[in-house]
Write a structure and sequence with these properties.
Blueprint: H1 6-30, H2 36-61, H3 65-70, E1 73-76, H4 85-100, H5 118-123, E2 125-128
Antiparallel strand pairs: 1-2
Helix pairs in contact: 1-2, 2-4
Domain RDD: 4-123
Keywords: Cell membrane, Membrane, Transmembrane, Transmembrane helix
Protein name: RDD family membrane protein YckC
Length: 129
């Protein structure tokens, strides 16, 4: 099993974020303008796109759009198989732990043997090439 490096993981996350960003930015620009239907519509659409890509698609295949573009997959550390949508949601929530320790958790792949963030360690996942 070849573990993905930090730069490739970061680039994949950037691609995933850029795909959902227009919806959230559009909603942000409409905030306070009185156009509630469009505001909420864009916000919900952004959440649906993010959820489909990061949780449903990545959970079932191991690849979000960004990971597919960069040639990496999210899998269970023990099974080397996709982790499923529920565990993909938990992993994204576990990234809050990476945030709490001053974002150092996101840098752990730079020096850990299995190239894991704190969220990966908690959820038993790895990102492979």
């Amino acid at each position: 099993m070849t573990f993905s490096g930090w730069w490739r993981r970061a680039a994949a996350y950037l691609v995933d974020s850029l795909i959902a960003a227009p919806f959230f930015l559009g909603a942000g620009l409409l905030d306070g303008t009185g156009n509630a239907a469009l505001y909420y519509g864009l916000a919900v659409l952004g959440f649906v796109v993010w959820g489909y890509n990061r949780w449903w698609r990545a959970g079932r295949t191991g690849q979000s759009w960004g990971r597919a573009l960069l040639g990496i997959r999210l899998v269970g550390a023990a099974t080397e198989r996709p982790i499923g949508p529920g565990r993909a949601v938990l992993r994204d929530l576990a990234h809050l732990l990476d945030d709490v320790i001053l974002y150092i958790g996101y840098l752990l792949p730079l020096w850990t043997a299995r190239r894991q963030t704190l969220a990966d360690m908690v959820t038993g996942t790895v990102v492979i090439r």
